[in-house]
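Hi R.,

As promised on Friday, here is the backbone we talked about, encoded as structure tokens. Could you run it through your design pipeline when you get a chance and send me back a sequence?
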């Protein structure tokens, strides 16, 4: 079922010794076209960008493909680029 809601990205600190972490809202993916779903996310820390692989067009019911949304005759795969705060770095 599609609720026409915007997907969101949340950030939390990764500390192997911690027993808890604070979660903060990083970004609303309002630039993605609907209906669709996010398939993958990658970060380019040098450019301060987050790359999002998203699919749209195919209707999913309980995780199973069930045809297409109106106006689509196939599933489309797109990569969208979002500027993000690059201060949180992935450890080497």
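Update: got your reply. Pasting your designed sequence below so it's all in one thread:
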């Amino acid at each position: 079922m599609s609720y026409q809601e915007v997907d969101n990205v949340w950030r939390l600190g990764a500390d192997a010794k911690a027993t808890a972490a604070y979660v903060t809202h990083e970004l609303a993916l309002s630039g993605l076209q609907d209906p669709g779903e996010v398939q993958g996310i990658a970060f380019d820390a040098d450019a301060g960008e987050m790359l999002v692989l998203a699919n749209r067009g195919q209707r999913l019911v309980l995780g199973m493909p069930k045809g297409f949304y109106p106006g689509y005759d196939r599933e489309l795969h797109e990569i969208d680029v979002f500027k993000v705060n690059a201060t949180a770095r992935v450890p080497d």
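One thing I noticed while checking it: The beta strands are 8-12, 23-28, 36-44, 49-56, 58-61, 64-68, 76-83.

Thanks again,
M.
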